[in-house]
## 1
Amino acid sequence: MPPKDTQKDKTSEEEEVLQAVVLADSFNTRFKPLTLNTPRCLLPICNVPMLLWTFESLALAGVEEIFVFCNAHSDQIKEAIQTSRFAQPAAGLRIVPVVSPRTMSVGDAMRELDEKQLISSDFILVAGDVVSNLQIDRVVREHKERRRKNKDAIMTMVVKRSGAFHRTRPVGDTSVFVLDPETSECVHYEPILAEPRRRNILLPREVLEKHAEVEVRNDLIDCAIDVCSVDVPVLFSENFDYQDLRRDFVHGVLTSDLLGKSIYCHVVEQGYAARVRDTKSYAAVSKDIISRWTYPLVPGDNLPGGDEYEYRRGNRYISKDNVMMSRTCTIGNDTILGPSTRIHDNARIENSVIGPRCSIGPGTIIRDSFIWNDAYVEGSCVIEGCIIGQSVHIGTGSVVRKGCLIGDGTRLGPKANVVEFKRISREKPEDEDEEEGDEEKHELNGLVNGLADTVLELGEHAEAYVWPDTVGADVGADGRSSSAARDADSEDEETEAWGNLKHLRMGDEGFDPYFSDTDSSEEEEESSLASPASGVLLTPGGHPIPDFTLGPRSSANFRSECISSLERALAEGHTVDDAAIELKTLRMASNVTMTEVREVVVEFVVGLVKGDPGSAVQKNNITPVVERWAGLIINLVASERVEVLLLLQKTCARLPNYLSAFKFFLYAFYNEDIVDSLSIRAWLKDPRSREGVGKASEGNMEVCWKQGVQTLAVIEADEEDSEDEDDE
């Protein structure tokens, strides 16, 4: 019979209310100017405020009481809580807003939590911009079981294993976790920024002395979900220099000889969890929701906001509430149309989210963008890779290029021409110097001077200011003002420095932290913290490898080495992520373009299909082969879908055995979401799709092109049938 004390402990734990603390403030300025008038946690993601996604995640975990710490725009947050379904008695949640004007960092929030004595037992600490379908209650039980054996185990961090190139992996704000493989104890933590680049970390000697074996993990995404004991707020109160949860608190606890506390990691292998840390992760998480990786939290099924959507083939979600679409408009895959939205003649929308009560004018093209509620876009506009805020008006014939953030209420156009990565607001940038303000102000009917003599034409009737690229770059990671940030630790400054922040921007796809084509030996020398003999070399997969320099290889050798790598991956059953890492490593060593990498991969995949030309065996083999390697092709394709179709066409045109099979490959590529109907149509219109590729395949390109026309007709007919069935 177990001791009475143990029975009492278990009984009291069963009676404890599971509590959570939500940090509504982000303590950085990465979303400005979109957050000038709206708190970041209430910005919509897939037409639902981020905070409601977090509440839904906690409700799934069985949380009964939630404390929401807020500072900026606290009145809006309180109103959003009161009007949400989570505040209703049927939800079974008690949500308490805690307004804290003094809170300027996570550390301040934890100290106030300790001061107010709101927490009575172990609790979940989570950011207010987390989307998750994880069963966090399991992590809580694991944490409590560990605490029964070791009272010094004060925190369990939830991390998720991912590939090096997963779209939710934050390039400019990642981490290295050093774990004891037997106990999952985190014995060392190291933040890794995009700039300055680092190739090594330095492990304290004590770590290796105390632990017979450790794992250096650079393949983990920090989910911003922690299970904490009541000791955590107390430690923040005792150490006023703790501001950031990871860089200060976790690092401080793990390196302290006096505290004697331990922190553990729970590595998630299944399920979904991601934090919207910046505009780049905003786009990535939105795509994951649309692609249903967050199931059951998806549009059309269990959306936290309560709106009802009709799910159609190709991950298209159309609100059931008064959406008006012209018969000549085109709604592409991976798209959401919010309630009371109007799409006019010949408008084209793909890979985008359109908010409630928006109007999209005739002939307008919107790609990879997010249009928030009550926006009005006139005709013949092109919007690509942007976030357009609430009640924005964009005039006729305007072009807004990738990476742009257009603040609430801004008016552009007509014929505005906004270059990449610009931030524009109706209000004057608050970080600008007052003396320079008049020079930077955009007259309503004139041209506006930006940085580096760039001239932005905002249109004749524009009401807007263009923000300098470096506005907000000197704000510390703890959210302190510019002057305070200058006095902060250099590591805090580097996190929010412009050189690092630029890699966290939506639409910035050109930076590869591991396989950059241009390396600075001087920069690497400065950023390395340890020599190869005493440190650990960082690789994307999170495994230590010997430190060596890859010598230059010829482009001719690249092809054979690439094929050998793919054959090994096939024979040994490597994952898609591992295969992609090896290919990109070879690319770096051989100094070849991504097009050459894609060409080899497409030819390899086509060549795996066996069977006589035109036979049923060949046709039946195509689907499983493409299904097996689709992830690798998608990983390498990025947005170059037309290019991969051209490569597939040239391969089948050059290899007679596969000429008649082109249409089946094309359909398989479509079914596996490598390409969509819009990209197939764009490929057919591309002049290169009808060009010859040498005497051996003269006329074969035309044969493939005609097969493509037939296949597209079948695909579009299938899509129309699917839509008709949905309408019924």
## 2
Amino acid sequence: MKEERIPPRFRRPTTLIGALLVALLAIGAIVLLTQDDDSPVRGLHGDLDVPTNTDDGVAATPAFRFAKATRKVVPTSGGGIKRHQREAGERAEIAARTILDGLYTEGFLDPSNWTRGEYASAFGGFARGAREHAVTHPGLLTAGARAGDRYEEILPVAGRIDTRVLVARGGRPTLVLSFVRFSAVATGPEPVTFRSTGQF
């Protein structure tokens, strides 16, 4: 089992990301990559879309999104949650989930990325410091720099995201925390099951 940690040293965003009304705060991530040499790779769920080749011969990216999701809106002031606070929290959660859908799709599933070992497109939603760190450490949140040599296909197995949104009295989200679990299987010369657990 391989375990790598990103230290919590990224600066906290102080503004929201454009019209998405969410600041993605990378506070740390743990990625567990396990390989069972003596057992076959686990089968996929039957409802997953299996990619087919595109017109140029490159395998298509398998469809993925965090279908299992929970959301909790927490007011920073006392009292109950107002309607405008809840609506703002919902928008922030959807925006964060969309960013993380893209991160795991680009980082693990898109053949145009993992076959070349280049993942810059996966970290577009990160703050600058976190993005630079992630790009220079591709093994933490991606299939790895040598994935193209090791694998023939990578398919998603499961994904879950639990998000907590802190909202101010006026309805502005002040902090968005997402707790993510993701798994995928890779077939090829070095078959592996990816299991990623992260906090963003």
## 3
Amino acid sequence: MENQQTLKQLDPERERSMTFFDSSAASYRHNPCITKVRPHLDVVARFESFVLLPGEKKVEIEVDTRIPSTAIFTFNKEDHTLANMIRSRLINSSHVLFSGYKVPHPLVPKFILRVQTDGQISPKEAVITACHELVKDLGSLSREFTKEYELRKMVGAGAQQQNAQNGV
């Protein structure tokens, strides 16, 4: 209890934002669990994980001078989903020698993609081509999904009409 009083005097804001459990025997008899709920002062707004801030770029490019035909791309406000799709598409390209990505921290929506090409095309051209191919493939997937969904709806509606006619 004395620790809590001292903390209140030293830093009342910190005292409010902490959770305590006083395990002393005397205190436990009166109130088995003394806790204070910590307000979520450090919670980040959900939109900050995908909305670019003013002046923030979606993609930043840095040429790696240590290895020829290599560039490092930093994608802001993106995660493993896009990173792995781009990386796998780049690996399938005949001009790409290396493609890999890393996420610096799981709570920061950003990934770093390193691309090395054979020199016939630049790493930037390889990434742009891979992104165009991905958009085309995802559009095709969307159309196929919509077509199958509509077919299922029609089959389901036909089955319901059949059941209604049979009295089921």
